[in-house]
Amino acid sequence: MIVPLAKWASSARTSNLPALPPGRLFIVKKPDPLCFQVSCSEPILHSKLTCPSTTLSGKAKTIRGILLGHMPRPPYSLLCVSGSLRSPSYCLSTCRAIHAIADAAEFQVEIADPRELNLPIYEPDFRLEDYTVKQEGIERLAAAYRKADAMVWVSPTYHGTVSGVFKNMLDFAELLSRDDRPYFQGRPVGLIAINDSTPFAAMRDCARELRAWLAPTHIELSQSDFSAEGTLSSTKSLNRVSRLLGELSTFVHAHSPS
After folding, report:
1. Cα separation of 90 and 230, whole Å?
2. Fewer CB within 10 Å, N or C, the chain?
3. Cβ neighbours for 146, distance < 8 A, ≥ 6 positions apart
4. Are residues 53 and 103 in the same domain?
5. Domain span holding position 84
6. Could you tell me if 85 and 110 lie in one domain?
7. How many domains does the chain have?
8. Running along the chain, 258 residues long, what does each successive block of 10 average in pLDDT?
9. Same domain for 81 and 103?
10. Does 95 lie in the same domain as 16?
């Protein structure tokens, strides 16, 4: 595991850690519960340092988190798909709540709002260039799908299933069918339904057909979970959203090539 030298240096000033030889990156290992082993990643420097945790005093847990729990990479990309054209919309409000709390799960959030995308009805025989109008929204959605490391799908309940708008947005994933990573292959998806749990069956079927992995937590929200202004305000529901994001983050970290 590689961490910047600056992280160790900052910790050393506050925790009496021994100084390290010059270098930009250091590989940090924890061979046993009592020691940190640090070696320079530069080939010309092979010096190693064993730092007994007794020298860390009461800050061992904090230092362990700094050294072993954080990799220097950009945040992962999370796409929230809102399946409602209403204004205001509980679906969109839920996506905005996810955006507000996603930093804790190391996600950078993008929201696919069908009102902004203004998509046409999906035509199965069309290529992208065959759509003579509204191509920009299709291109934006396809790009967001390709960029996403994880997704959250939010659909209202219409007549016992997902909304037509939501399903139409997923149908455009067919544009990814010939990608090196087709459809949503290998990406985790969290499911949220508004007002009833019946959309989950269709959402799960779509996720499997699109080769995604499902997060175990499914969330059903109702009007009582939102404030008079339409903001997701229920503490219980927000905690469940945080748990869902944690599951997605765990999956992405475990399957990331870096």
Report:
1. 7
2. C
3. 176, 179
4. no
5. 76-255
6. yes
7. 2
8. 42 46 41 44 35 38 36 76 95 96 85 97 94 93 97 97 98 97 97 98 98 98 96 96 94 80
9. yes
10. no
Same-domain pairing of 124 and 195: yes
What tokens were used for 127?
A: 């290529």
| Co-location of 150 and 61 in the same domain | no
Q: Give the span between the Cα atoms of 2 and 98, in whole angstroms.
A: 30
Q: Is the bond leading into 4 cis (omega within 30 degrees of zero)?
A: no
CA–CA distances in Å: residue 89 to residues 63, 138, 222, 230, 258: 43, 22, 12, 8, 37
Q: How far is CA 145 from CA 89, 140, 212, 223, in A?
A: 22, 9, 12, 29
| Statement to judge: residues 16 and 42 lie in one domain | yes
Residues 52 and 150 grouped into a single domain: no
The distance from CA 65 to its chain's CA centroid, rounded to whole angstroms, is 21
φ and ψ at 22, to 5 degrees?
Answer: -60, 150
Q: What residue type is assigned to position 144 of the chain?
A: A
Name the H helices within 16-113.
Answer: 60-68, 90-101
Residues, the chain, total? 258
Q: Which pair of tokens denotes residue 8? A: 């160790």
pLDDT of residue 204: 98
What tokens were used for 94? 């839920």
pTM: 0.73
